[in-house]
Design goal:
The chain is mainly α and about 300 residues long. It has twelve helices and no strands. It has one domain (about 1-295). Helix 1 runs parallel beside helix 11, helix 2 (about 35-55) crosses helix 9 and helix 5 crosses helix 7.
């Protein structure tokens, strides 16, 4: 039974990250719609789908219990703003030919998590982890000094998602309940934007063709399905194992950006990616070494 659950966890983890990796293809299909409008539909239809799933699978009791805890609701209000900002930036990046920057952001994210754990969770870094963080910082510094630019989109994506993950870890709420409450918090402003965005394509679904409306409704599926797969994997396999799969998504994005969408992979990007990939190799080696020690012990 344990082996079966472990295999299910591996399949669910791969499904989540492969889903996230190919998500840009969906956003490219609706790139004629303004990023803010795509975000609005993503919030609205995610809320609807989460409501259906909670009705079918149960979970209203957890939500009622959460509503009695104002501190946790305050944290979820902050995380809802962070995740909305992350979603909007990612949509903008994909639909404005900055998928390479988005890919870099999600490669950087594990290292941002390590630094946030050091600063806010009193976690200690090993020498190799310090070296990995230094390599990543060097890559960004070289881009800034030598090329006179800084990967703003990448750092913003990594930063917003990193702080989001940190706060969600502190509030300790399951993925389904958390996403349901976050989308409920974001729903009123999303509906206001949808209603008052006169002249914006897809602001009023009655003026759209059925195919575009179907694609907009699918935003809820694109959001919730990989998250639920991730949540299912997290309870079946160790977090250290799950961590190795997080490179699948940005790797798929990287290949698509270069081969499918022909984004330029110039010297500036190659230097930065080279340092980040080197940092991730060091980081992954350290994780493997720690896991082996725990297994032996």
């Amino acid at each position: 039974m344990a082996d079966t659950e472990y295999r299910k966890g591996i399949v669910l983890a791969l499904s989540a990250y492969i889903f996230w990796g190919f998500a840009p293809l969906y956003f490219k299909l609706i790139q004629q719609v303004a990023p803010l409008q795509i975000l609005v539909h993503r919030i609205v239809w995610s809320f609807v789908l989460m409501g259906i799933l909670i009705a079918l699978m149960g979970g209203y009791g957890r939500i009622r219990q959460l509503l009695k805890q104002p501190k946790q609701l305050l944290v979820l209000t902050i995380t809802s703003i962070l995740v909305a900002a992350n979603w909007l930036l990612f949509i903008w990046a994909v639909n404005n030919d900055h998928l390479l920057d988005a890919s870099l952001g999600y490669f950087i994210n594990p290292l941002v998590n390590v630094v946030l754990g050091l600063l806010f969770l009193s976690e200690r870094l090993s020498k190799l982890q310090w070296f990995a963080v230094a390599l990543a910082a060097s890559g960004v510094a070289i881009q800034l000094i030598s090329f006179g630019s800084i990967p703003v989109v990448s750092l913003a994506l990594a930063g917003t998602f990193g702080v989001y993950a940190l706060l969600r870890k502190k509030v300790n709420i399951d993925a389904m309940t958390g996403l349901a409450v976050e989308t409920a918090i974001l729903l009123p402003p999303a509906l206001l934007v949808m209603w008052f965005a006169e002249g914006e394509q897809a602001s009023h679904m009655l003026t759209n063709g059925w195919h575009l409306n179907l694609l907009l409704v699918a935003a809820g599926v694109i959001t919730t399905i990989p998250l639920l797969c991730f949540a299912g994997a997290a309870v079946r396999i160790p977090l250290s194992t799950l961590g190795f799969f997080q490179y699948v998504g940005p790797s798929i994005m990287f290949v698509m950006a270069v081969i499918v969408f022909h984004e330029p992979f110039d010297m500036e990007k190659s230097v930065t990616f080279g340092f980040i990939w080197s940092a991730l190799l060091v980081f992954s080696f350290d994780m493997l070494r720690r896991r082996r020690r725990l297994t032996v012990a």
